[in-house]
Specification:
5-stranded mixed sheet, 2 domains, Alpha-Beta Plaits, Arc Repressor Mutant, subunit A, 306 residues, globular, 4-stranded antiparallel sheet, single chain, alpha+beta
Amino acid sequence: GAEAAVAIENARLHTEVITDELTELYQPKYFELRLREEIEKAKRYRHCLSLMVVEVDNFEEFKKRYGEEKRDKLLKSIAGIMKGNLRVGDIACRCGENGFGIILPEVTEEPWGNIRERLKKQIRETVEIGERLRRRVKEEELSVTVSIGIASFDGQDREMKRETLIKQAKEALTQAKRQGNTVKVFYDEKLRREISTEVLEWIKETEETLVSGDICVDLTKHTVQVKGKSVKLTPKAFDLLCLLMKKKGRVLNRSFLTESIWGYEYFGTTRTVDSHIKVIRQKLGSEGKKIKTIEGIGYKFTEEEI
């Protein structure tokens, strides 16, 4: 009774201390603490780790034009988008007036696998999350866009420090802000050697379209066409189709799809994935048969003849 009540109250007070009141994300000091911890953990277990820094473009102009009340609403909205689109285990924090930091530990079922392949996978997944956040902010019509910088670490460099990873992510952010509303990844010569040109080319291309037979998805305009005719999908269904197409040939389980599209704050069931797949198939017509059901596991997008 009394002991449990005290424990609950202590937990509540601890949460208040480490949480930013406005955005309900973690505070900057907690960000620094957790980043140091996660880097040490990555070194110990030879896991990959990514850091994403997000900044609102032209923030000062927005503040002058709309005032503090709208500024606060804007920051709360962006924080909400983050909470709804990250994975279980990702750590989102407020860093400065118009900035956010997200720590993304590696999510892998093969911690013993080839480190280069795992690092490529980690970077791809982090870029996909960054692109999704960028698009979501744009879709919400908040009168702003965001720029995102990403730095990744393979757990092998024993000298890696928090300050180094932050500096690398900020360098990538500076490049992103030059263009505005983009996602950029930090690369040094060591990283270029380690991950091969394949993933570098993938990121440099910044995919604009996904094509499979008669399906054409425009990632910048958020449109889907089948045999030249427009197909309307909800934002979640659109993201689900994109994920399946990007990972074509791979079996994606329902839990992975749920976390990737609905985020760690989603408390529904994996049946939501099934209902969205059903709608996508209907909308795609005969091309919908490319989304194969893998009984008891999930789904796979295939290029096979239908």
